[in-house]
Please model this.
Amino acid sequence: MKKLSLFTFILLFSISGFSQTIFGKWNSFDEETNKIESIIEVYQKEGKAFAKIISITDPQKREATCFKCSGKRKDEPILGMDILTGLKKDGDEWSGGKILDPKNGKTYKCYIKLEDNNTLKLRGYIGISLFGRTAIWKRAEQ
Model:
């Protein structure tokens, strides 16, 4: 009986430990209405974290392009666009990358941190993180 209890404990601990990750699908929210605006997929490539918009909830915005963006992103579809690029793990947060705000076309330095298994904190800023904006994403149902 002790072996079964120990096995169950180890199995549950292992599962919960693996689920503590920034990777997966996240809901982003409209700042004014607090309604889900899009679903973002955070993924890993070559040891760095990236994120792209995989769904937009407003049917009228699904065909939108990043007309305020510059460079290669200018007039590219927002749906499918990478908005987080090149974040590296640094302790309990991921930093050193950039975040794009497709609404204004601007790119900011950023860091992200898993607050709990279902809450991701993002901070985009110019210069130092004191001058920026924080967003909270909630894990999307799979």
